[in-house]
Write a structure and sequence with these properties.
With 193 residues, this protein is an alpha/beta fold. Helices cover 47% and strands 20% of the residues. The chain is built from seven helices and seven strands. A hairpin with a 2-residue loop joins strand 4 (89-92) and strand 5. Helix 1 (16-26) crosses helix 7 (177-192), helix 2 (36-47) crosses helix 3 and helix 5 (122-130) crosses helix 6. The longest helix is centred in the last third of the chain and has 22 residues, at 142-163. The protein is globular, with a radius of gyration of 16 Å.
């Protein structure tokens, strides 16, 4: 059985993981969801490079590249419908590390069917980050979030054009998660049919 992969991205705090989690409850489409950061964290812990997921963004470029390649190779080998929860970029003190470098994304080329960007307003992202006590986030301002949103959408547009696959941008407004989840479920049904 071949795989069909959808990459789901979004600026941290846009709500992509919530959208993916909630969609499993309302859609009849069967799929496996894979969180890239969780897979990378597991590999980094095995190698003794990091103690938790938030430490990943402070690793050297070479180690991040090695972790990403191992993760995307594992995903490429999976079968069935797969939703990949990842980031287009990771910001750390003005340094933007690609979350989807060309070489790693090309590992998925045969099965990659669509990219979904869950987006929110900068104000909504700031509010969600401020209320998230589960993660160690840097203090960020609206300007940095705006920059990351621009970088993310630019890189996702490039991949959609290069791979000739659709890019869906789904807005996740504050207190409108149910509407966003319904739209995401429609995309899943369309792509995984």
């Amino acid at each position: 059985m071949a795989n069909k992969i959808i990459l789901v991205t979004g600026t941290p705090g846009a709500g992509k993981t919530s959208v993916i989690t909630q969609s499993k409850k309302i859609t009849g489409v069967k799929y496996e969801d894979v969180i890239v950061g969780t897979l990378m964290e597991r590999i980094a812990k095995e190698k003794g490079w990091a103690k938790d997921r938030d430490e990943l963004r402070y690793l050297s470029n070479d180690r991040i590249a090695e972790l990403r390649e191992a993760t995307f190779s594992a995903i490429a080998g999976m079968e069935g419908n797969i939703v990949v929860d990842t980031h287009a970029s990771i910001e750390q003190r003005g340094r933007y590390v690609p979350g989807l470098p060309a070489g790693d994304t090309m590992l998925l080329k045969g099965g990659l069917k669509a990219i979904v960007c869950v987006d929110s307003s900068t104000d909504d992202i700031l509010m969600r980050r401020a209320g998230d006590s589960n993660r160690k986030r840097e203090v960020e301002d609206a300007r940095l979030i705006d920059m990351q949103r621009i970088i993310n959408l630019s890189s996702l547009t490039y991949y959609a054009l290069k791979l000739n696959i659709p890019l869906y941008v789904i807005e996740n407004k504050q207190d409108m998660l149910e509407t966003t989840v319904k739209r995401f479920a429609e995309v899943l049904s369309e792509v995984f049919k």
